[in-house]
Amino acid sequence: MLKLFPIFIFLVLASLSTSEIYAQQGMDTSKVLVKFNEPMSRDGIFDTNNYTLYQDNEIPIAIYKVGVVAGDTAVVLYTEKYNPQSSYRLIINNLKDKSGNVISESHKMAFY
Question: What is the fold of 4-111?
Fold first, then answer.
């Protein structure tokens, strides 16, 4: 089963010993690193419409572009600047791993 791994602001390192979805915030408030537990298909991975980011569960944060990390197990979302003191919800749709499995409904959302 394909699951989202924790999301982090770009360049913040953390252990991936669990499949729980969580995040930590770093200094750069315009990049989000999203890690997956399997290599992802490139079909749709660069489409910003497949990612939605909300501040405090209601204010949309613009996503300008998506970059793929080597190995296809993570993407970097380039966003508008946001407040690191707020809470955020990330929703991902229409992405598949390299075997063709779609991210399950129960694992397509992350909070941080």
Answer: Immunoglobulin-like (2.60.40)
